Amino acid sequence: MATQELCRVVSNVEVGSGLFALTMEAPVLCAQAQPGQFVHITCGEGNLLRRPISICNVAQENMTIVFQVKGDGTAWLSKRRTGDTLDVLGTLGHGFRMEELGDHPVFIGGGIGVPPMLMTMRKAKENGAEPEAILGFRNKNAVILEDDFRALGETHVCTDDGSYGLPGFVTDVLKLHMQTATSVCACGPKPMLKAIAQIAEEQGIPCQVSMEERMGCGIGACLVCACELKLREGEQGVRYGHVCKDGPVFDSKEVVW
């Protein structure tokens, strides 16, 4: 069951162009948060729908989210200051299955898909794994959380235009590191996830993907975030799952790309 909690804003800092890291006091939500889950936040009285935002990190009773300003709701959220109160529903969705990662998981994030991988990588390290991260961004100005990932393990940063780190895409880097990977976890644009899933399948490596879809209710009632999934072995056709309730994390072999 989702929990509604009124959370006090601790800090809200712009970490990139239109990108904000907001930390809030959320003792109840922090106690139940799992890597890969998200929260649903009310963003102003005039915005009827809550905004779904992935959990970036949890430290004791403080929860951090990182979001990009895309519309009125996130613009409102970007203006919150220390001491303001947020109406938060969570924690929602099924996260990454940590018990399936093995000794050397590789965590891949693309753009705003980078933040949820931080908590996932931290939890893997706490569980005794030696994690590795591959982070992809459009350009140098879009790079976020690099130091946080490097504190947890080997981290590779690449940019589409080559303005920072390695030039090219996360898939280019992944191909160079698949020999030692025991699993792959990824979050980002669907074309990126599709390419990662193909590489992992060719190498016989388990792959979990966090899907990004528009959401309305966040609890599986409005059906906005439906995604095509494969039927069980031997069955024909497709079935439909909901990213908010059945995901956002799926086995990559389960998704109809």
Short summary of the structure?
With 257 residues, the chain is α/β, with parallel strands linked by helices. The chain is 20% helix and 35% strand.
Label the structural class.
Answer: alpha/beta
Strand and helix order: EEHEEEHEEHEHEEHEHEEEE
The strand order across the widest sheet is 10-9-8-7-11-12-15
Residues in helix, %: 10-25%
Number of strands: 15
In DSSP terms (H or I, runs of 4 or more residues), the helix count works out at: 6
- What is the rounded distance between the termini? 30 Å
Task: State the low-pLDDT regions, or none.
Answer: none
Mean pLDDT: 90
Instruction: Quote the beta fraction.
Output: 35-45%
Description of the molecule:
Helices cover 20% and strands 35% of the residues. It has 257 residues and is of the alpha/beta class. The protein is globular. A seven-stranded mixed β-sheet has the order 10-9-8-7-11-12-15, sandwiched between helices. The protein has a six-stranded antiparallel barrel with strand order 1-2-5-4-3-6. It has a two-stranded antiparallel ribbon with strand order 13-14.
